[in-house]
Each structure stands twice: as structure tokens, then as C-alpha cells.
Design a protein that fits this description.
This protein has about 290 residues and is mostly beta strands. It has two domains: about 30-130 and about 285-294, Immunoglobulin-like, CATH 2.60.40; about 135-280, no CATH class. The chain contains three helices and 20 strands. The protein has helices spanning about 1-25, 80-85, 285; strands spanning about 30-40, 45-55, 60-65, 70-80, 85-95, 105-115, 115-120, 135-140, 140, 160, 165, 170, 170-175, 180-190, 195-200, 225, 245-250, 265-270, 275-280, 290-294.
């Protein structure tokens, strides 16, 4: 009986070894995808970056990450079979609490693979801010229409900003169209740069913005803008004289609503050059990257 047990034990060991050998031979071959990014910044709030490769017309996640610097390099271990047929790389911004099998509408960089390498750009994923055919120009007015009871101007114009030339004409000319997943947001920066306060989000120069948390109850122009009259953040007096004005590009996702996103292409200063606004940051050149299959 002892010999029989020994034989059975030996057979079991051989079977386990054979199975282990089969598992190793059937393991998935992996390759490395190296993604180098320039100009992106750490995401705040409940947001994260996620990379994707397009395989057979469908997105395959390469992994989620954040960054601590404007330039970063990430290596992803991806099945070789997927990388061999990948046609493009996409970088999206995602809610941290929702690990979806497809990218969100908010994509920031993309590029097609050519000879195992893709050059990533922001233009098709966000917008074109180097349009020389129809260049952007803009301006704003200081005015506080939402507390002019009966249409009578009460003389406190220093406490409101509206992106208009007059009551019926937009102040933002040739505003670049944003890709799906992004919105503009206006800001006035109070307290020597420490307290940005929103004027609301919008997608068009000719149309109202998303909110009016600080305005009064009287009719407002049908354009983006805000009166800083009530319910202001602590330490903000609402007077915009001489202050920086910024238009940022924001992810159309729930994130950090208290500060501008790092895409801030348009800015100006109250009282300078007739309150002109201009494209002061070339985000199309600033935000870039590469994806290399190794």
C-alpha cells in the first residue's frame, strides 16, 4: 500500500508541474507603451487621467494616473496583440469614482500611430487657438445691470463684468469652438491673485452662461457675465477695478469648481487697452506629447 501511495503522490506532482508549464506557455505576451506628456498639470478634485489605445475601432484602457509635474513619462504594460494593431492613442480626463469601459467625452490629447509612434496634440480634442484666418479678439464692459431697478442705472458699475460690446452685441469675437466635453468659464481674480471668482460657464459668445450666483434680480444681458453684488466669497468686495480677467477651458465633468482649470488661453486686465481680451497662452503648442510602442 505504501508503494501505491508513493506512486500516486509522484503522479500528482507531475500533474501539477505539467499544469504549471502549460500556464507559463499560455501566458499573454506583453509589450511596453511609453507615453511622454508636456504641459499637463496635476488634476484636482475627483478627476484623473486615463490613456486609451484604439484597437479594431474600440477603445482599450492603458491605465489611470495623475501627475505631479507639467512634464511626465508613463510606461504601460499592454498585451502585444493589442499594441500590434493599435491605430491611435487618446488621453482622456475621467471621474475618479467611475471606472467606465469607454473614455469620457472630455479628451485632451490624441494622435495616430505611424511606425509604432504617435504624436499627440490638443487641437482636435479641445480646440484651435492658433486660427490665423479668423483670429480671436475680445473685450468686456464694466456694468451692473442686475440691480438697476426699473432700468435706472444706480452708478455702481465697478462691481460687474459682462463679455459684451453693448447690450445687444457680443464682446467675444471669433471665439474658438470647443470640442465636446469642454466648456469656457470666466473668472475675475481678486485679492492679488489668491481668489478667483467665477462669472459662469458657457459655450457660445452669444448666449447666457450657466449661473449667476452673485447677481441681482433685475434682467441681465443675454451674454456671459456676472454682477458681484451679494453672496460673495469671504474677503471679496466685488470691485473689479484693475483686476485680471481670465477665460479658462474647463472639463465638462464634476471636479474642482473653485479654481480655474490649467487651460487658460484668454486673459486681460480691467482698465488696460479698453478692457481688451486676447489669446495670451498658445495651448496648442503648450500641451503636447508622444506615445511610443516598444
Amino acid at each position: 500500500m505504501k508503494n501505491v501511495k508513493t506512486i500516486l503522490l509522484f503522479a500528482a506532482v507531475l500533474l501539477i508541474a505539467a499544469c504549471s508549464s502549460d500556464d507559463n506557455s499560455a501566458s499573454t505576451p506583453m509589450s511596453t507603451l511609453t507615453v511622454n506628456l508636456t504641459g499637463i498639470e496635476p488634476l484636482e478634485g475627483d478627476l484623473t487621467y486615463e490613456g486609451w489605445i484604439m484597437v479594431g475601432g474600440s477603445p482599450v484602457s492603458t491605465g489611470r494616473f495623475n501627475t505631479t509635474a507639467a512634464s511626465t513619462s508613463k510606461n504601460f504594460s499592454i498585451p502585444t496583440a493589442d499594441l500590434d494593431v493599435a491605430t491611435a492613442f487618446i488621453l482622456s480626463i475621467e471621474p475618479t469614482v467611475n471606472d467606465d469601459a469607454a473614455p469620457s467625452n472630455t479628451k485632451i490629447l490624441s494622435g495616430n500611430f505611424v511606425a509604432n509612434a504617435a504624436t499627440l496634440n490638443i487641437t482636435t480634442m479641445v480646440g484651435n487657438f492658433v486660427n490665423t484666418t479668423n483670429p480671436f479678439s475680445g473685450s468686456f464692459l464694466k456694468t451692473t445691470p442686475t440691480d438697476n431697478t426699473g432700468g435706472i442705472d444706480n452708478g455702481n458699475e465697478d462691481y460687474g463684468i459682462w463679455f459684451i460690446q453693448n447690450g445687444t452685441t457680443a464682446g467675444l469675437i471669433n471665439l474658438p469652438t470647443l470640442a465636446t466635453g469642454w466648456k469656457y468659464e470666466g473668472w475675475v481674480v481678486f485679492n492679488t491673485g489668491s481668489t478667483p471668482v467665477t462669472t459662469g460657464q458657457f459655450t457660445m459668445a452669444n448666449g447666457v452662461d450657466s449661473a449667476s450666483p452673485y447677481s441681482g434680480n433685475e434682467p441681465a444681458p443675454l451674454f456671459p457675465g456676472e454682477d458681484f453684488l451679494s453672496n460673495l466669497p469671504a474677503g471679496v468686495d466685488g470691485n473689479i477695478n484693475g483686476l485680471p480677467v481670465v477665460i479658462s477651458i474647463e472639463p465638462d465633468l464634476d471636479g474642482d469648481a473653485n479654481t480655474p482649470f490649467f487651460l487658460k488661453p484668454i486673459s486681460g486686465t480691467e482698465g488696460i487697452n479698453s478692457n481688451a481680451l486676447s489669446v495670451t497662452t498658445n495651448i496648442n503648442a503648450l500641451i503636447s506629447g508622444t506615445a511610443q510602442i516598444n
